[in-house]
Design goal:
about 625 residues; Spore Coat Polysaccharide Biosynthesis Protein SpsA, Chain A; ten-stranded mixed β-sheet; elongated; glycosyltransferase activity; Glycosyltransferase, GT2 family; Nucleotide-diphossugar_trans; Glyco_trans_2-like
Length: about 625
C-alpha cells in the first residue's frame, strides 16, 4: 500500500507542477517507449536532484547481498570463464593508494584473473617489500622489477610480458576497479565473441574516497574519439591484438593508452570496440593526476596530439589534429578544386529575417563556390516579392516559386532536385552566419568517407546554445543536446566544444553530399511535413551505413521558428501529434537506444543529467532474466 501511496503523491506533485495535459502527453510517450513497467518505475523512482550522483549510486550502482550471491552463482555456472590479466605499471606510488588499487583487484567478485605488476625501478624503499608480500600471499599476483626507470610505456610493456591470459585490463597504480568490474567484462567477452576491445563508463574518486563526476559514455564514436580518448578507463584489450600492434610505444607517455587504442582501431576496426554502460573504474583525483586537470600533465596533451596525427598519416586521412585546452580538434583539408555547394533556403514573407540570412551568407562566408536556392513558398508581401526579384540579379542566387501548402520536406526535396552542387546545404531562413569559415568546416567533414549529414553549432540570439547535436528519445522523440547552455559552456565532458558523431543533427543548418541525400530518398514529405523530418532523415542515413557529425566550429545564430510559428492551434497540434505517432511507429525501440548517448542519461531533459532510473537493467535483474531465458 505504501508503494501506491507514493505513486499517487508523485503524480499529484507532477500535476501541480506541469498541468494535466502535458503530464498525460509525457506519460503516453513513456508508455509507448518503455511500457507500463517503465511508467511505474519512473513514478516510483523520483524525485532526486538530477545531478545527485551519490543518491544515484545508492539506488542504481550498489550491490546488496542478494545481488552478490547471484553474481557468484552466475560465475560458477560459466562453462569456460575467460581469464583476464590486469596490467599495472608502478613507480614510487603513494603506498595507501597502491594498496587500495591492488586490493580492488583482489576483492573482485570474478576470481579468474591475474595481476601483472611492473615496478619501474622505484626509489621508495617501501614499494618492493609491499609488492613482494602481495606476491607471496596470492599466486595470481606476478611482479617484475625493472633495473632502470623507463617511464610508463616501457613499464607497461614489462607488465605485458608477464601476461598469460587472452585478455588484458589496464589499471593505474592509484585507481580502483568496481568490485563487479571483471565480472561485467567477462560477461561481455562471452556474449560478444567478435569484440577485441571493451571499454566501460568511469567516474572519479577523491583522496577521501568520495565518488563523483561520472562519465557515461556512448558506443564507439569515431569523431568523438578523435576529439578525446573515450576508451580510457576501463579499457580491456585482446592480448593477441596487443601483440599484433606491438604493445605500448615509447615516446607517447601521458597518452600511451590513447596511442594504443588508435593503433588497435587501425588493426581491428570500429566494430571490434564494445562499450559496457556501467561504471567499472574509479579514477583517483589528486594534484598531479590527469583526472584533476589537463594542465597537470601538459605533455600528455602533446603526446595525444602526436598520436592522433600519426594515426591520420597511417590511415591516409588528409587532415591534422591540434590540441585545445579541452579536447583535440581534427581539421580536414579541402581539395584544391572545391565542390560547388547548393544552399537551399525555404521562405515565406519574413523579409527582415530572410535578408539578414542572405546578407550574412554573402558578407561573411569565405567558402567558394556556392549557390543559393531560395524556395518562395507563397510570399504575398510586396516588399518580400520585390526583394526576391532584386537578389536574383546575383549570378549565384536563384528563386523558385512553390505555392503548395507548407511542407518543409517537399520544399527541400524539390529544391535539391534543381541543385547544381555536389554538396547541398539545408538552411532555415532564420539562420544568421557567425563564423566566416562555417562552410569550409562543414564541407570538409561532409566529404569524408562514411560521413552523411553534418550539423552546426546554433545559438539563440542571446548567445545560449540552441543546437549542439540531436539526442534521440529525449522528450519523447528527440531533443537538442545542451540546449540553453551558455555559449562558453564546455557541456557534458566537453561534448559542446568537440566534434562528435550524433544520431541526428537539425536541418536548420545541415550540409551533406547530394548523392547521399538522393540515395536515402530525401526528407519524408508524406508523413513528416513539418516536424521530425530531419530526425527521420538522419536515422535513415544511419541505416544506410553512414554517420552523422556535429561540429562546434561552424557557428550560426538561429532565430528559431520565427516565421513558421508555434504549435498553437488545434490543427497544428493534431498534425504534430500525427508526426509523433509516425516516428514512434517507424523507429520504435531505436528512440530509446541512441548509440551516441548513454542509457544512464536522462530522456526527459536535454542537459545530460542522470536517468532516474537508467535504461540499463540492474545486474541482479539482468542475471534473473538470463536464467529465465535459459529455463524457457
Amino acid at each position: 500500500m505504501k508503494k501506491y501511496t507514493s505513486i499517487v503523491r508523485r503524480l499529484a506533485s507532477l500535476i501541480r507542477r506541469d498541468g494535466v495535459y502535458p503530464l498525460l502527453r509525457k506519460a503516453t510517450n513513456v508508455i509507448q517507449r518503455e511500457g507500463l513497467d517503465g511508467l511505474k518505475r519512473r513514478a516510483i523512482s523520483r524525485p532526486a536532484p538530477n545531478h545527485d550522483y551519490a543518491e544515484w549510486i545508492k539506488r542504481y550502482d550498489s550491490l546488496d547481498h542478494d545481488a552478490i550471491e547471484l553474481i557468484k552463482s552466475d560465475i560458477a555456472s560459466m562453462p569456460t570463464p575467460p581469464r583476464i590479466s590486469v596490467v599495472m605499471p608502478t613507480y614510487n606510488a603513494e603506498l595507501s593508494w597502491l594498496i587500495e588499487a591492488i586490493d580492488s583487484v583482489r576483492n573482485q567478485l570474478y576470481p579468474h584473473w591475474e595481476l601483472c605488476i611492473a615496478d619501474d625501478a622505484s626509489t621508495s624503499p617501501e614499494v618492493r617489500p609491499l609488492l613482494e608480500q602481495y606476491a607471496r600471499e596470492d599466486s595470481r599476483i606476478r611482479v617484475t622489477y625493472r633495473k632502470e626507470n623507463g617511464h610508463i610505456s616501457a613499464a607497461s610493456n614489462s607488465a605485458l610480458e608477464l601476461v598469460t591470459s587472452e585478455w588484458v585490463a589496464l589499471l593505474d597504480q592509484d585507481d580502483l576497479f568496481a568490485q563487479h568490474a571483471l565480472y561485467c567484462v567477462a560477461k561481455e567477452i562471452i556474449r560478444q565473441p567478435q569484440a577485441r576491445v571493451f571499454y566501460s563508463d568511469e567516474d572519479k574518486i577523491d583522496v577521501q574516497g568520495k565518488r563523483h563526476d561520472p562519465y557515461f559514455k556512448c558506443e564507439m564514436n569515431i569523431d568523438l574519439f578523435y576529439s578525446q580518448n573515450i576508451i580510457c578507463h576501463l579499457g580491456v584489450y585482446q592480448k593477441q591484438l596487443l601483440d599484433e600492434i606491438g604493445g605500448f610505444r615509447i615516446g607517447f607517455e601521458g597518452a600511451q593508452d590513447y596511442d594504443l587504442a588508435l593503433r588497435c582501431l587501425e588493426r581491428a576496426g570500429v566494430s571490434a570496440f564494445v562499450h559496457i554502460p556501467r561504471v567499472l573504474y574509479h579514477w583517483r583525483v589528486h594534484s598531479s593526476s590527469t583526472a584533476a586537470t589537463v594542465d597537470a600533465k601538459p605533455y600528455a596533451m602533446l603526446a595525444g596530439e602526436r598520436a592522433l596525427n600519426e594515426h591520420f598519416a597511417r590511415q591516409n586521412i588528409d587532415g591534422s589534429v591540434t590540441g585545445t585546452p579541452y579536447c583535440y580538434r581534427a581539421t580536414y583539408r579541402l581539395p584544391e578544386q572545391r565542390p560547388l555547394v547548393s544552399l537551399i533556403i525555404p521562405t515565406r514573407n519574413g523579409l527582415e529575417l530572410l535578408k539578414q540570412c542572405i546578407d550574412s551568407i554573402v558578407e561573411k562566408t569565405t567558402y567558394a563556390p556556392y549557390e543559393i536556392i531560395i524556395v518562395d513558398n507563397g510570399s504575398d508581401e510586396q516588399a518580400t516579392l520585390d526583394y526576391l526579384e532584386q537578389i536574383q540579379a546575383a549570378e549565384n542566387i536563384r528563386v523558385i516559386r512553390d505555392d503548395r501548402p507548407f511542407n518543409y520536406s517537399a520544399l527541400n526535396n524539390m529544391a535539391c532536385a534543381h541543385a547544381n552542387g555536389e554538396i547541398v546545404g539545408l538552411l532555415n531562413n532564420d539562420i544568421e552566419v557567425i563564423s566566416e569559415t562555417w562552410l569550409e568546416e562543414m564541407v570538409s567533414l561532409a566529404i569524408q568517407p562514411g560521413v552523411g549529414a553534418v550539423g552546426a553549432r546554433l545559438l539563440y540570439p542571446d548567445g545560449r546554445i540552441q543546437h549542439a547535436g540531436v539526442t534521440i528519445g529525449v522528450g519523447g522523440v528527440a531533443g537538442h543536446a545542451h540546449k540553453l547552455f551558455p555559449r562558453d559552456s564546455l557541456g557534458y565532458f566537453s561534448r559542446a566544444v568537440a566534434i562528435s558523431s550524433f544520431s541526428a543533427v537539425t536541418a536548420a543548418c545541415l550540409v551533406m553530399r547530394k548523392a547521399i541525400y538522393e540515395e536515402v530518398g530525401g526528407l519524408n514529405e508524406v508523413d513528416l511535413a513539418v516536424a521530425f523530418n530531419d530526425v527521420d532523415f538522419c536515422l535513415r542515413i544511419l541505416e544506410a551505413g553512414y554517420r552523422n557529425v556535429w561540429t562546434p566550429y561552424a557557428e550560426l545564430f538561429h532565430h528559431e521558428s520565427a516565421t513558421r510559428g508555434l504549435e498553437d492551434n488545434p490543427k497544428k497540434v493534431a498534425r504534430f501529434n500525427r508526426e509523433v505517432e509516425y516516428m514512434l511507429k517507424r523507429w520504435g525501440d531505436a528512440l530509446t537506444q541512441d548509440r551516441a548517448y548513454s542509457p544512464n542519461l536522462s530522456l526527459d531533459l536535454e542537459d545530460f543529467s542522470l536517468a532516474w532510473p537508467p535504461r540499463v537493467a540492474p545486474l541482479s535483474l539482468e542475471i534473473s532474466q538470463q536464467e529465465k531465458k535459459v529455463t524457457a
